[in-house]
Specification:
With 387 residues, the chain is an alpha+beta fold. It has three domains: 4-103, no CATH class; 115-305, Sandwich (Jelly Rolls); 312-382, 3-Layer(bab) Sandwich (Phage tail protein beta-alpha-beta fold), CATH 3.55.50. The protein contains nine helices and 23 strands. It has helices spanning 4-14, 20-32, 34-47, 56-74, 77-103, 303-306, 320-331, 340-344, 356-366; strands spanning 115-118, 125-128, 134-138, 142-147, 150-155, 168-173, 179-182, 188-191, 195-200, 209-220, 229-232, 236-240, 244-249, 255-262, 265-269, 277-280, 284-289, 295-299, 313-319, 334-337, 346-351, 369-374, 377-382. The strands form three sheets. It has an 18-stranded mixed beta sheet that branches. Helix 2 packs across helix 3, helix 2 crosses helix 5 (77-103) and helix 3 packs across helix 5. The two termini are 19 Å apart. 28% of the residues are buried.
Length: 387
């Protein structure tokens, strides 16, 4: 937006802090610049995450609230009536436009991929489609039950024998999917897109509990002081007794990251002559650099690292290059960025129900660029000159 004064007033209006005089100024501008106002409302709606799962009616109520705030401050009946007249200018076409915007279909080709479990012998795969509760596997030793996008392992009631030999399964979650897994000890694992977990169908009754992760997962570990729980990746081991934490170990990132939500966690390098490990407290992050093979620790706000578990894409001052990586995994697309400068641009945003195109349009309005979509491949180019 080129008019800085209007931009400031609009921002105040959308955050319910505009005065009556400012709303009057904005109303006059809106009558002549309806499409620009529509775009700014849409952008505010996406970047702030104000519309997660909200209907156009909900958005209309939010706009009305902005007027209510100013109306309370206006005092006199004449001014209050004036505000009501202004409200009609904003709310009607703004919410209609948002409704149209939210209903816009995603033209990215939908290529359905499935979550699978590879059994111990490697010869059989069970395809997992979200659906009603059903038993996926039943044997004399254990039962695997599926309910929607959640798989639960537990010992068969008829089997009270001690586990003497570990039998492993591997769950693979493709791009564009997420899945929840409950291990035989009650530990809950949320697997993000493009991830896999190798785990025993039943742990030893005594001794360590070990699983192997590729990609990203959030763990809520069942406490058991006699059976420490270890998550191994290609480069690090995270050892816990009972805690909640997130590990991101995608090999196409520059760093592997572990954040602790609750409890305590020890993180050290695997397969190394240096046995030293870092002890984490809640709201701390350990980062492992694939380049220099070193660990570092810092205090963080864990919310942006675990939001994916609730289906939220949350970016806090992140390079567009890394945002694109997350979009690729979330939507199962391939993004090619031809604009070097854009890759370094930092963005903040929160998205949940939006399509990939809606997200690109939101970023496009902040920093101009062009993009093309061919099936599930997206190419981002520098914005062409209008001359």
């Amino acid at each position: 937006m080129k008019n800085k004064k209007i931009e400031i007033i609009l921002h105040k209006f959308l955050n319910s802090t505009a005065t009556l005089d400012e709303i009057a100024t904005l109303a006059k501008w809106v009558e002549k610049n309806k499409s620009s106002f529509q775009e700014e409302v849409e952008l505010h709606h996406l970047i702030t995450g104000a519309g997660d799962g909200q209907s156009p009616e909900h958005l209309k109520n939010n706009l009305i609230a902005a007027f209510d705030q100013a109306r309370l401050a206006a005092g006199r009946a004449k001014k209050r009536n004036l505000l009501l007249r202004y409200a009609a200018i904003f709310i009607g076409f703004a919410t209609l436009g948002i409704y149209t915007y939210l209903q816009t279909g995603n033209s990215v080709a939908a290529i359905e991929k499935e979550v699978t479990i590879t059994l111990d012998d490697g010869s059989t795969k069970k395809t997992l489609n979200g659906g009603p509760s059903r038993i996926v596997v039943r044997s004399g030793a254990y039962v695997v039950n599926q309910e929607g996008t959640k798989i639960t392992y537990k010992k068969a009631e008829s089997n009270q024998k001690e586990t003497r030999q570990l039998v492993y399964n591997t769950m693979d979650v493709p791009y564009g999917k997420k899945f929840q897994l409950v291990l035989s000890d009650g530990t809950e694992v949320y697997l993000n897109s493009g991830s896999s977990l190798t785990y025993p169908v039943a742990f030893y009754d005594q001794g360590p509990r070990n699983v192997v992760l590729r990609g990203e997962a959030y763990f809520t570990v069942t406490s058991d002081s006699l059976r420490p729980f270890t998550v191994s990746t290609q480069n690090i081991d995270a050892k816990v007794l009972g805690t909640e934490f997130n590990i991101s170990s995608y090999q196409d990132d520059e760093h592997m990251k572990v954040v602790l939500v609750e409890g305590s966690l020890s993180v050290g390098q695997s397969n190394t002559s240096n046995p030293s490990a870092l002890l984490l407290k809640p709201n701390q992050l350990v980062s492992y650099s694939y380049f220099n093979k070193e660990l570092s620790k810092e205090n963080v706000d864990v919310s942006s690292y675990i939001a994916w578990k609730d289906g939220v894409l949350l970016f806090k001052n992140e390079d567009f290059y890394y945002i694109a990586k997350k979009l690729e995994r979330h939507y199962d697309v391939k993004i090619e960025i031809k604009d070097t400068q854009l890759s370094k641009e930092r963005y903040t945003g929160r998205f949940k129900t939006e399509t990939i195109e809606e997200i690109l349009k939101a970023f496009q309005r902040i920093k101009g660029f062009d993009y093309t979509i061919n099936e599930n491949r997206i190419k981002i180019n520098p914005k062409k000159s209008s001359i």
